[in-house]
User: What shape does this take?
Amino acid sequence: TGQLLRSFEGHTDAIHCAVFSPNARWLLSASADKSLRLWDASSAQLLRSIEDPGKHINSAVFSPDSRAVLSSSDDGTLKLWDVASGQLVRHFEGHDAAINSAVFSIDGSQILSASDDSTLKLWDAASGQLLRLFEGHGSWVMSGAFSPDSRRILSASWDDTLKVWDANSGAIIH
Assistant: This one.
């Protein structure tokens, strides 16, 4: 029907991203106010605010099991946060510019980040180790996605192209 069901308020600057948790119990919002907000999806109650001392948070996503959230920011870092405690679990560094988005693989074992440094990076979610660098775009990479079997990666860039990559070798397929 298009009827507004709930309104969520609490951020003090622009909200860059909002997502449902895979279990549909929570909503997560990421803002230029350098915070993540975890909300109860049914009541709109704020459950937790996670303050990040870095720069603007550009994106946030839940892990497939809804136990962690991953944020990406203008300072070129990824941060993995525990949903239950709000504590920082892991800090990923390696991009030379803002990270526009990041996603988990279907099984949650890997993380893909897309950056203004014109690259994508594949990370081991458990250790934080960089697994692979994807180079070939001529401008900012805005987003990346895993294929359902996690064997291919799709990227979108300001260079007006989409590229499909082999996740294992890093080679451009299309």
